[in-house]
Amino acid sequence: IINTFYLSRSTYILSIFAIKLLLLFLFNNMYKSLIKYLTVSYFFLFSMNIYGNIMLNENDKLSTPLPLPYDGKIYNVKDLNNFIEKTIIQKKQPILMFGANWCPDCRIFAGTMNIPKIKSYIEQEFNVLYIDVKRYEINMNLMEEYGIPAAEGIPRLLVFDKEKNLLNNSRTTEWRTARDRSSQEIFDFFQEVTVN
Q: Is the peptide bond preceding residue 104 cis, with omega within 30 degrees of 0?
């Protein structure tokens, strides 16, 4: 009886040990698989842009000399409305960009728009009209036509949809500090205001 009890107890302990070892092995492998899955998922999720925006890379850099896109032309409301209408006929969105060549933020913003990846995107989706304000001496009153107060601080961008609605009426001054913003932030702005 003692030997049978001892054998049964030994078998029982051995069985429990084998089960624990098997469970440890299975959980360990599952744990490793789970860690591997979570690691891959983490890198995948955080390496892509959540909004699906096109991302710039180290080759997409601002080049110098910076452009001088403002030509000193004086516009009227009819000129701007014609530009908006012609752009919409081309199935693009119109952008009115008020600025001046003396303004570093205007030149940096325009230079960023010339980065090839950004330029290609803009040419596909938008038409841009650069409107010179000189030293706030010309064309300032044109902003008021679209409900924007004529105030200092440039560049001022007015982005319209394909139905002539101003999309960024509360954000027209956001690029007055373009020199403090990254090229990706500027590119993201254009991608965010794109309507299909």
A: no
